[in-house]
Amino acid sequence: MRILAFAASNSSVSINQQLVAYAASLAEGAEIEMLDIHDYDMPIYRHDREEESGIPQQAHDFLAKVGSADALIISFAEHNGIYTAAFKNLFDWCSRVGRNVWQDKPMVLLATSPGGRGGKGVLEFATGHMPRFGGNLVGYLSVPSFGENFDTGAGKLIEDTLNTQLRGLIAMLANTVGEE
């Protein structure tokens, strides 16, 4: 199983990057590719820009990465209850290539934040949004109060209930891929 994992965050010290890396590490025997969305930085999407210059190569490259994976794990940072501008722009450009951005890949969606809601706003939006663009949603998890529930030194979730839930989601993802 080949998993593509990334944080939909534009922070160089992203707690969502830490969470998604830990989640991916739970997929025993899987080949993991950690992606940095900064490698796909493009100008802000604008119809006029697309008409003048076409779709940037980075959008095609990102879609090729998605296409080469068997499954996806994405952890969303929340900016004002929604995706970060960096992720939204990447998504907007990719959706111009075609609506099936996630290419029917099974996916687990995560979110975390320092606060008690754990990025629930963006996660609620993403769980409703991703399937409309070809995401095969296996499950999702919000991790509230990141600093209390995640040991950054050890790089792992330390709250037992959340850790059990995350392990279950990753097992379901592996089983979904195994059924195909």
Describe the protein's architecture and organization:
- This protein starts with a strand and ends with a helix.
- The protein has 180 residues and is of the alpha/beta class.
- The longest helix has 20 residues, at 160-179.
- The model has no long low-confidence stretch (mean pLDDT 95).
- The strands form two sheets. A five-stranded parallel β-sheet has the order 2-1-3-4-5, sandwiched between helices. A two-stranded antiparallel sheet has the order 6-7.
- The chain contains seven helices and seven strands.
- The chain is globular.
- β6 (150-151) and β7 form a beta hairpin.
Multimerization state = single chain
Whole-number radius of gyration? Answer: 16 Å
Classification by helices and strands: alpha/beta
- Runs in which pLDDT lies below 50 for 5 or more consecutive residues are none
- Spell the H/E element sequence: EHEHHEHEHEHEEH
Rounded mean pLDDT score: 95
What percentage of amino acids are in beta strands?
Answer: 15-25%
Give the % helix. Answer: 40-55%
- What distance separates the N and C termini? 11 Å
